[in-house]
Design brief:
6-stranded antiparallel beta sheet; binds beta-D-glucopyranose; globular; Beta-galactosidase, Chain A, domain 5; 9-stranded antiparallel beta sheet
Length: 386
């Protein structure tokens, strides 16, 4: 099964290229967020303290007044405020306005995920003759980097205010952290463009062969109100294949054609129109789609629209896959800062990535990173109103 053979090359050329888990950590204080002005640029306010390191909340504001807030705890995007078609400004991502809520435990809301996005079966993989055993935190499997993944680390931050606001986050993951080999230096840069694009650029280097699959785990609700479900949003995914999973949500190794299945989003479909046919427990989309591409340039992967708010989200990426997750495990037990529960299907995730469990699936594109190689990927979430 060749990845390139049957693929329909994406016709859309991106014109805007390229431009409580194990927290030994304790929140020392819960500083209220200082109100920022709507001036273009980037401001910083205290957000608390984790692992005896200061945690900040950065507010990126573009020329249109769109504001994205990001903390250096887990590189989490806590809010993205943008106008709907009537000019009402609300956040289109799930998040909290206090660090305490993040430390209480949450399903990766807005977080940077690493070293490995999604699952590695039984937490084991081999590089050459060496078998590595990872922390298991999802039944018998390893999920999203393990017990204390990148989403729970305090990153070093530097800011740039030149043309557009830019927040650069760095983290060094030590050899054998969560079981992964190699000292890994990671840098992730968030840029908010004036045309409402949130670009995320990932770079990394290792000193020993390792595996790596970085992503961002933002949960979107384009209505700007998570008490609405996202099942009426319309979605297009530029993918002719997806990677089926077993009952433990581990990829089987097969690439299955989406044609004639509820996974075919090549023409826009409501997220909810066929979701009942997807099956699984608790049921819903939680699958990696194999993006149609012949090279690794930044290309359109997904478009989502909400006719009520008029908001449109386009996702461009250099990655081979995207995990489409419809918030199936949200059950209302976690509440937003306004006290409203986050219910099942109140948000969707589009985690651009390599395929889950690639280290154990020789037919999937490789996630091996060797010393001397540079890991690089770019994803752009682009908002507009129609
Ligand atoms: C996974 C889901 C998981 C969710 C939150 C998604 O990427 O595919 O199975 O429940 O993240 O951890």
């Amino acid at each position: 099964m060749k990845l390139t053979k049957n693929f329909f090359f994406a016709t859309v050329i991106v014109s805007l290229i390229m431009t409580a888990c194990n927290n030994s950590s304790e929140e020392k204080k819960d500083t209220p967020v200082t109100e920022t002005t709507s001036k273009t640029g980037i401001t910083r306010s205290d957000f608390g303290n984790v692992d005896n390191k200061p945690v900040y909340l950065y507010t990126l504001t573009n020329a249109k007044g769109d504001q994205v807030k990001i903390t250096n705890y887990g590189g989490i995007v806590t809010s993205w405020v943008s106008p709907d078609k009537k000019g009402n400004r609300t956040s289109i991502v799930l998040g909290f306005d206090s660090l305490r809520n993040y430390l209480a435990g949450h399903p990766y809301f807005g977080a940077l995920v690493g070293r490995y996005g999604n699952r590695i079966a039984k937490g084991k993989f081999k590089i050459g003759d060496n078998t590595y055993t990872l922390a298991t935190n999802n039944g018998a499997n390893h999920l999203h980097g393990g017990i204390k993944g990148f989403d729970k680390q305090v990153w070093d931050a530097t800011v740039a205010n030149d043309a557009v606001p830019e927040l650069s986050l760095s983290y060094t993951s030590k050899d054998m952290e969560e079981g992964y080999p190699g000292n890994l230096k990671v840098n992730v840069t968030y840029t908010l463009t004036d045309d409402d694009g949130l670009q995320i650029e990932y770079n990394a280097e290792t000193d020993k062969p390792t595996v790596l699959n970085l992503t961002n785990h933002s949960y979107f609700n384009l209505t700007g109100d998570p008490s609405n479900s996202i099942l009426d949003h319309e979605m297009m995914i530029n993918a002719n294949y997806y990677t089926p999973v077993d009952t433990g949500l581990i990829t089987t190794g097969e690439l299955k054609a989406v044609k004639g299945t509820p996974f075919d989003f090549n023409t826009p479909e409501k997220i909810g129109s066929r979701i009942a046919q997807v099956g699984g427990n608790p049921g819903g989309y939680d699958h990696n789609f194999v993006l149609n591409r012949t090279d690794s340039s930044l290309q359109l992967a997904v478009t989502v629209t909400d006719s009520v708010s008029g908001r449109k989200l386009q996702v461009f990426t250099t990655q081979p896959g995207v995990q489409f997750y419809t918030g199936n495990f949200l059950d209302g037990s976690i509440k937003g800062s306004d006290g409203k529960p986050f219910n099942k299907n109140c948000a969707f995730c589009l985690e651009t990535q390599h395929f889950p469990d690639s280290p154990n699936q020789p037919k999937f594109p490789t996630t091996l990173l060797k010393p001397g190689e540079k890991y690089h990927s770019v994803t752009m979430y682009k908002l507009s109103v129609e």
